[in-house]
Amino acid sequence: MPEERVEINVLYFAAASTATGLSQELVSVTSGLRLADLGDVLVARHPKATALRKILDGSKWSVDAEMVDDPDAVELKGGEEVAVICPVSGG
């Protein structure tokens, strides 16, 4: 039986938005994909965004406006809004 594909809405902020050239996009993923593995999907979708892997590795995630402490514990079912929250510095 083929794996079920679902769509999620990914929001990009700050450096992630600059790297991808997008503020958001619909991404098709396998139902049950761990949030921790979403970075691999996004890097594969944006091969010209050479800094994206480093940006994602240093970022936090939120799902449906809730910050995620353990991306390994979150499975994406479809319909979620996932935000890439880049670290910010301020003075």
UniProtKB/TrEMBL annotation:
One of its GO terms (molecular function) is nucleotide binding. It comes from Mycena albidolilacea. Keywords: Nucleotide-binding. CDD domains: Ubl_MoaD. GO terms for biological process: Mo-molybdopterin cofactor biosynthetic process. InterPro entries: Beta-grasp_dom_sf, MOCS2A, Mopterin_synth/thiamin_S_b, ThiS/MoaD-like. It comes from the Eukaryota. This is Molybdopterin synthase sulfur carrier subunit. GO terms for cellular component: molybdopterin adenylyltransferase complex.
